[in-house]
Specification:
Chain lengths: 280, 280
């Protein structure tokens, strides 16, 4: 079996490591729009053979697209144009609605499986690919009924290798949830970083104190714009809904402090503590 | 040497574990306003002997106060009333200005050292005390010049045992920095939890998807109100300044999305990425 990875960065590499660990006999070929990335992927060792995009599309039994979501929307129809009825294509983009929409009437629609494995790091590039990634996380598979059964089974089998917990939903529903559990966290983290950096112009002791819970909330602010601007663009409406809600929650904290309403502040915090039900 | 821990919860216990690891010959006695906490501390094993508050103050060479900051402000003058000129008292509260202020004219002021080790977890209670805590973090020592030299040396020696990096500053300055690197992270995290929980009323798939960066930004939202309401109360002005700045940063993201100004969005994200200079 030959697997072609389009996009040999952190995510593509982490997927490639997964396959080479679990299915050492499979052949891994790769393509990246950046020659440097592709060379590094071979050097790091998760790609057996660098190829052109055309060659990858021709030779792969399974094509895994791991590039920014705006690039997926552009590239996916062309990839489907080039495959036979035996090949399978999957993506792992963080948005799903525009991606399934752009190929919904394509004659090869059935060969494509839209997925989102809920795992990532704030780093990018082939040198940051992670061995043993994805484990225990959720893999969302969207609009399953639009994909051929054999294609879905292949992808399910891939996620079962990790294993990941498979969750099925419509792309529209996925994008709403993703806005809540992932996209808003990134915006909050970016805004927090900017808040602190604004202050840092005046003071620099702040550098030394960056303990106290700061790293975990600001970790995501290191995430790359090339990946995240397209996600926010594609999921604009949902992200705006959540962002408005988030700002209104922050305003409640502000009002509590301004009015010294510490009973209500306690109530808000105890409400927030209920998140323990969701994350252990 | 006898060390008395006032407040045998998560922080007090983590401190006690530190001492019992590094100085096994020292005697650890403890007091907690909650009898249950104190019994559990003995059961868990980080306190050798439970005592009354009076007995602890009488017998301890070093008293470590690890209780919420509002309780410190109330208790600290009484503790200083009860000690001799050979005993030393320290606190580890997350705010410093009100604490040093309340005892600034006390005759035993010199025996007290105001500190803030920049380490914590979102959990509370003696059962959540951590062995090997504090390592590699910063310990802030405030208003050093108001403490006797031998008292400061004892506490510096304690932090050197870990070791922690010692940073010296005025209490007023500490509270400003703490608002930026710790207190705002907690408010952002609480508000994020409330944002998601608000949505969760309507949908429950969100439970399953809580990967994708969500845990790290919302982790702090599990933190206990009994600890954090008093911190926000005492550091109200600084926290409000930072919170206003944070809301205004979030509004920039909102405006970018509403106006589809994706170039500016990219600029904001690239600005936030500069946080890499502060956290690795």
């Amino acid at each position: 079996m030959t697997v072609g990875i389009i996009g040999t960065g952190m995510m593509g590499g982490s997927f490639a490591w997964l396959i080479s660990e679990k299915k050492p006999s499979w052949n891994l070929i790769g393509y990246d729009a950046s020659e440097e990335n592709l060379e590094k992927a071979v050097e790091v060792g998760f790609i057996d053979e660098p190829v052109s995009l055309d060659e990858l599309v021709k030779r792969s039994d399974l094509i895994i697209i791991t590039i920014p979501v705006n690039a997926i929307v552009k590239l996916l129809p062309k990839v489907l144009d080039g495959i036979s009825n035996k090949q399978v294509v999957m993506d792992i983009g963080s948005t799903k609605e525009q991606i399934v929409d752009v190929i919904k009437d394509h004659s090869k629609r059935g060969r494509f499986v839209a997925t989102h494995p809920m795992w990532g790091t704030e780093y990018s590039g082939p040198e940051n690919a992670v061995k043993g990634a994805f484990k225990g996380r959720v893999a969302v598979i969207c609009n399953k009924e639009e994909s051929d059964n054999d294609a879905v089974e292949l992808i399910e089998g891939l996620y079962d290798l990790v294993p990941m917990q498979k969750v099925y939903m419509e792309a529209h529903e996925h994008d709403i949830h993703a806005a809540y559990v992932s996209h808003i966290s990134h915006i909050a983290s970016y805004a927090l970083a900017l808040t602190v950096l604004e202050k840092e112009r005046e003071e620099d002791k702040i550098f030394q104190l960056a303990g106290g819970g700061f790293e975990s909330t600001v970790r995501l602010a290191k995430s790359h714009a090339a990946m995240w601007v397209p996600i926010f663009m594609q999921n604009k409406e949902n992200v705006l809904d959540v962002l408005n809600e988030h700002i209104s929650q922050l305003r409640k904290f502000k009002a509590c402090l301004e009015k010294e309403n510490f009973d209500y502040l306690q109530e808000l915090i105890e409400g927030a503590n209920k998140i323990k039900r969701i994350i252990k």
